[in-house]
Amino acid sequence: MDLDSMIVGAGVSGLYMLHRLRGLGHATVVLEAGDGIGGTWYWNRYPGARCDIESLEYSYSFSEDLQQEWHWPDRYSLQPDILRYVNHVADRFDLRRDVRLATRVTRATFDEVARRWTIETDTGSVLTATYLIMATGCLSVPRVPELEGLEDFGGRWYHTGAWPHDGVDFTGRRVGIIGTGSSGIQAIPIIARQARHLTVFQRTPNFSVPAWNGPLDPDVEASFKADYGANREIARRSDSGTTLEASTTPTHAMAPEVAKAELERRWAQGGFNMELVFADETTDANANAIVAEFARRKIRDRVKDPAVAALLCPTDHPFATKRLCVDTDYFETYNRDNVTLVDIRAEPIARATPAGVRTAAREVALDDIVFATGFDAMTGALMAVDIRGRGGQSLRAAWAAGPRSYLGLMVAGFPNLFTVTGPGSPSVLSNMMTSIEQHVEWIAACLGHLRDRHIRLIEPSAETEQRWTDHVREVGDQTLYPRANSWYMGANIPGKPRVFMPYVGGVGAYRTICEGVAEHGYEGFALAS
Ligand code: FAD
Ligand code: NAP
After folding, report:
1. Per-residue pLDDT tens digits for 31-62
2. Cβ of 292 below 6 Å from ligand 1
3. For 492, which of 121, 265, 377, 529 is 20 to 30 Å away at the CA?
4. Measured in angstroms, how far is the CA atom of residue 318 from the centroid of ligand 2?
């Protein structure tokens, strides 16, 4: 099958990309490995899976009718509600007919003579397309760490990112969960309520802030919708891709009493508001330490046993240099009689056994193990495909020392290949809906520009790519982010290069850069007809 464009992935990125490319008149197909659409919200069905961005903002903005008509039940949406929404969008815009499910792309090769991509899949089909758009997601390759003896474990085990579709009943069972990132922190309170006993195996404590979630207030909904367009524009021009109001005052300019009140005010607002207390919160270690200590004090307030509270207090990374967790009753869960916290830095897990898990200090009998151990983030899904550009060079080789790109959108040596929310763009540091829409719209406008001028080839120069890659690193180095062993740094995957992958210059500033590049005739890109 010969196409104008091929999209890989039917999450919120791929589906919107399809909609925009239809608008250009492109013959387009979306290939999706899963049996259904929705990406993240299709795969991550673990108990408590929920959005950390408010519902009114974690949604598409491209259709005024859609955003006005859709009603979100909660301030922060549950996974089934988001999945229902994505399915509604697919039906409303008649997207399904160009989506092929249960089809994994395994290889993509650029033919320099035909100037087209040849795409191979695990079903044996071969397609060709002028443009290849990878909408494969930043958090779509779940990672189960090596655990000796897992094959002999007599119970059931699951990864949060590949959860069974008919759910899991933990009633009466002894459950162990490994991992206390966002997924673990959401799942732990819910599993604890159902299980006979829950053992949490924690390697690194994490900062988490209450969501203060609840039903969406009808007055808030009405007033936000009354100005939906303006609110979206604020989000697009902000650092975070949201309408949350960021502080412009650095710590040293705030009197201690004012700072204290501000911390409490932000805490009461909940969620990512805590990242925005001081203008220098993620750039100045002293400013950050004030917020970190405030957050630790809140943990000590929430957890009754001081020894358990101490274990739950993060001390090895600055506040918000890992994606901040947004929780409902996470720390309070450790006040329950049926929950045990095991610090696996002090007593590492030695192996799984037929009856449970053995640590350096004890045997823990378990019926179920839940891995909330994260993903091979940002590069994992791209590197999983054998992508070959000019001269047969592979993306895996090009990125062996860490990802390189121009604007997180294209890679030198790989013409006509686009990455939605690729490394080198703000993506995972933001409300990803805002970043996804921006990328999709930029790519669609770019392809419209090429079509109108009968141009068939676009590719960044190696120099431009180097400059942008250096810029991404320099901006990252001006912040505290590289101090954390986060998945932003590739630190969660043994052997992965330690590189700060997203662009931390801010969603709005980044958008302006991308707009400038387009206005100047796609500056930094080589275009050929
Ligand atoms: P995805 O949703 O990851 O979709 C990519 C799709 O590509 C997947 O369906 C995958 O199966 C498919 N795919 C990958 N490789 C191939 C291949 N080789 N062949 C065929 N198909 C392939 N972001 C926020 O901003 N706020 C949140 O609160 C938030 N919560 C999250 C919660 C969880 C549990 C996770 C994992 C992520 C969360 N994110 C959140 C990030 C989230 O991934 C994005 O917001 C968004 O959903 C990404 O959409 P996407 O379409 O780009 O990627
Ligand atoms: P994660 O943040 O990478 O957390 C993984 C957890 O597993 C960490 O606590 C990690 O410990 C632990 N771990 C990993 N390997 C381990 C091992 N071998 N032994 C013991 N512990 C191990 O993954 P995640 O929680 O799935 O979240 C990933 C991202 O998805 C989030 O940061 C966020 O962007 C998104 N997400 C968002 C939400 C939301 O609130 N809406 C929910 C879920 C996910 P270390 O810290 O020591 O590595």
Report:
1. 999 999 999 999 999 999 999 999 999 999 99
2. no
3. 121
4. 16
